Amino acid sequence: MGMFDSFLVPLGNREVEAQTKRFDCVLKTYRVGDLVSGAAPGLRVYFDQLRIDEDGRFVYRETESPTEDWTLFFVLANGVLVDTDAVAGTLGEELILQRIRTLNEIWQDSARLLERLTTFIAEKQKRIDRMNSSINAVRHVIRDTRRLRQGDDLSGPFSLIHESSRRLKQGDDPLDVIESVLGEDHRFFYSDPEVPTDRLADYRL
User: pTM for the full model?
Assistant: First the structure.
């Protein structure tokens, strides 16, 4: 089949993968909010049709009978996948063109598009902040491990404020501690954009 890219599309409580050779074909997988490598500028709507069997596998042969048919639509704005739309059934040419025109009209709204792109940027920033928090936590483990190996007993002020420091001092394997902190929530010691905020604050009298 060669190289391709994939789009993940939510269908009910699952995601399906639609493959495409239209873009850079570098085996990348994209979700809504991602910048698609090789996508053309401007607003563009594409479609694909999937046939799925009862086990969730794709059906490619005309001789096989799928249990589900879907027509999928993908909206890209300046290379960003801003929306997907899944319509049950195999739509004909006229219905496909009609849906493409409708999606084009919807996403020509600059305010809607700007709001969506701003949301994507905020979400990406949250991911970066969480990653930075995890990196800082790992650096803290590395620093404490080195201190212990140099004979420091981590007895200074605030030296054991982190759970990771206490675990290292009691002899836990540093790799186990790193694995643990990578799965922890560091919002108390490190900036975390997911700290709950008052969503009604702007409306209170």
Answer: 0.70
